[in-house]
Design a protein that fits this description.
Layout (H helix, E strand, L loop, with lengths): L1 H11 L8 E6 L1 E5 L10 E2 L12 E6 L13 E2 L1 H5 L8 H22 L3 H11 L19 E5 L2 E2 L4 H15 E7 L6 E5 L14 E6 L23 H15 L5 E2 L7 E6 L7 H6 L3 H13 L10 E23 H15 L17 H7 L3 E2 L4 E2 L13 H11 L5 H14 L4 H12 L21 H22 L8 H11 L1 H22 L1 H20 L10 H19 L15
Parallel strand pairs: 2-6, 10-13
Antiparallel strand pairs: 1-4, 2-3, 5-6, 6-7, 8-9, 11-12, 12-13, 14-15
Pfam families: Cas_Csd1
InterPro entries: CRISPR-assoc_prot_Csd1-typ
Organism: Actinocatenispora rupis
């Protein structure tokens, strides 16, 4: 079904390249006049100072996958094929075969092209012996450099006759000498011997060469020790469409995503013109698109019940010259939209400043991956994805995306990793709190997800959640007392005891109350009203803890640790909110 969906997309998309063509950088151009007389030197197209044209200017050129044999491309190829130049590590007799094969292909092009001036000029270039006059570039050349002919200012590979002639040549090389039923489309057609193209290695994380999706090169790779695609019948049209579609999708930022050190590329598409790029919105939530996605249930403009559109997602990695399919899913698109809405609902979180959750503050997938890494205190930012010491789990992005698309829960190991990073970094921010809230709402033991609100829930009486709120009150009281006397804390109560509180909150809160009496007295000297507010609020929280059916555990289990962190964050956000300024609380650093 994967190959069928890719071939279907390739036939319907206007972005897919012509058969037996690929987008490649052309490093040199040889200018010819109509009589085939060349310019004195090759014209370099590469720009070493530019990242995009460092190896040449990209063009759509004739191309098929070369294996171990001699296989020239039409009107554009490397210097060995075009001129017979021998590199230091090349065999002269092999280069001679390549050069003769290229000249034979040009002669065939001239015979089939009729009155095409480009074909005639290139053929005369070889027939009249001008090839011996071409000088090598002074800055050197490589065996992988592409050289193209340009006749009277026009690229020869763009000549109208090239596509027809080249398709016939390439088809003869890659097709089997038989017809059969294609496994992809189910039609009787000419079958391929091998897949005629590969995916550029830059698009396949982990690949060290251009990679193939389907290949049987050795007897041990296939059924009954048979090589090629003999036992995997794929017709010419489907084989071309599959690879062209996959390359087009993988190179399109609107349809693919790959993060450093995540070892995979995620590719997605639909079989309809959807007005919302769901994965793009999940990764980079723009306010307008997100508002449109979230507002559908509230405006009553639901999707057509007869909508049968399908969402497809493919996760690939690479191993040398092979594409590894790590995951493949297809799902009804309306369900994907519903799951995306639920994802953002579960991720919504009040800001550290106490401002309500808004679409423009939504947390994207890339930010969630970043927040699971190490926090650099000196730079006040997360260690970039892919850098040394980032400490992020492999496959995190793909796992989060799958949870967002299909409404599944986050694996406990990933949440445990996040809690460990909160403890080690001493840093909690909206992104981390949002992911913990989502994990709580989707936990299998959560009977009522609505108790985990974006902001503080005064009606949620879980002991661990309440302990987190009390801990935040103690930290806020210390900050308020220091600020009232114009002091700045070097090490706060939260800095010293947050780790212990996540393990055993009972002992930590007792220690905090011992300090609180002194903080309370200091604050009362300057701001007695604020001191009374803190004492009253903590008293109410302790009363709620005493009324809980369950006792405060002496040691927090993983889910209880999540509850503690969320309660702490909610209470700190409330203390920092502008609506609570009547108590004159102070903005505090993220802990």
């Amino acid at each position: 079904m994967l190959l069928h969906r890719l071939a279907e997309y390739g036939r319907d998309s206007a972005d897919v390249l012509p058969p037996f063509h690929a987008r490649k950088p052309v490093r040199f151009v040889l200018d010819l006049d109509a009589a085939g007389v060349p310019a004195e030197e090759l014209t370099p197209l590469a720009d070493p100072s530019g990242a995009r044209q460092r190896t040449g200017v990209p063009f759509v050129v004739p191309s098929i996958t070369r294996t171990s044999g001699v296989a020239p491309m039409l009107a554009v190829d490397n210097p060995e094929y075009l001129f017979g130049w021998v590199a230091e590590d090349a065999r002269p007799e092999w280069v001679a075969k390549q050069h003769h094969a290229f000249r034979d292909l040009i002669a065939h092009w001239e015979q089939q092209a009729g009155d095409d001036p480009a074909a005639r000029a290139v053929a005369r270039f070889y027939r009249d012996g001008h090839v011996a006059c071409v000088r090598k570039p002074p800055d050197g050349w490589g065996r992988k450099d592409l050289v193209a002919f340009r006749v009277d200012g026009a690229m020869a590979f763009r000549s109208p006759s090239v596509r027809a002639v080249w398709s016939g040549v390439a088809l003869g090389r890659k097709a089997l000498d038989r017809n059969g039923m294609c496994l992809v489309c189910g039609r009787i057609a000419t079958l391929l011997k091998t897949i005629p193209s590969q995916i550029p290695r830059r698009l396949v994380p982990g690949a060290t060469q251009n990679a193939s999706l389907v290949s049987v090169n050795e007897p041990t790779h296939g059924y009954e020790l048979v090589t090629s695609l003999t036992n995997t019948p794929i017709c010419v049209d489907c084989g071309l469409m599959v690879m062209q579609a996959l390359t087009s999708l993988a190179g399109d930022p609107e349809h693919s995503m790959a993060l450093a050190k995540q070892h995979s590329r995620i590719i997605w598409w639909t079989d309809s013109a959807d007005e919302i790029n769901v994965v793009g919105t999940l990764d980079r939530p723009e306010a307008a698109e997100l508002q449109h996605l979230l507002s559908s249930p509230h405006t009553g403009q639901s999707h057509d019940p007869g909508d049968t559109a399908t969402f497809c997602a493919l996760t690939i990695g690479g191993n040398v010259a092979r594409v590894m399919v790590r995951d493949w899913v297809e799902h009804p698109l309306p369900d994907i939209r519903d799951h995306a809405r639920a994802w953002f609902d579960d991720l919504a979180i009040v800001g550290w400043d106490g401002q309500p959750a808004q679409p423009e503050r939504a947390v994207g997938l890339s930010q969630l991956v970043r927040c699971c890494g190490r926090w650099d205190r000196q730079k006040s930012s997360y260690v970039p994805i892919g850098d040394k010491g980032e400490d992020r789990p492999n496959g995190l992005y793909a796992t989060l995306l799958r949870a967002a698309l299909f409404g599944t829960r986050i694996p406990p190991a990933f949440v445990a990793h996040l809690v460990r990073r909160v403890r080690l970094d001493g840093h909690l921010d909206p992104s981390r709190a949002a992911l913990i809230r989502l994990a709580l709402r989707r936990h299998p033991t959560t009977s009522n997800p609505e108790v985990y609100m974006p902001a503080r829930n005064p009606d949620h009486h879980d002991p661990a959640y309440l302990c987190g709120r009390v801990f935040a009150q103690l930290a806020s009281l210390q900050w308020a007392a220091a600020k009232a006397h114009g002091e700045k804390l070097n090490t706060s109560f939260a800095d010293r005891y947050f780790n212990r509180a996540l393990t055993n909150p009972t002992i930590t809160l007792r220690r905090g109350e011992q300090y609180a009496s002194a903080w309370q007295k200091r604050l009362a000297r300057k701001k007695p009203g604020l001191a009374t507010f803190y004492a009253k609020t903590r008293g109410e929280l302790y009363h709620q803890i005493d009324q809980c059916p369950a006792e405060v555990p002496t040691r927090l289990l993983p889910k209880q640790q999540w509850e503690f962190i969320l309660g702490y964050y909610h209470e700190q956000a409330r203390a920092n909110s502008s609506t609570d300024r009547s108590t004159d609380t102070t903005d505090q650093e993220n802990t």
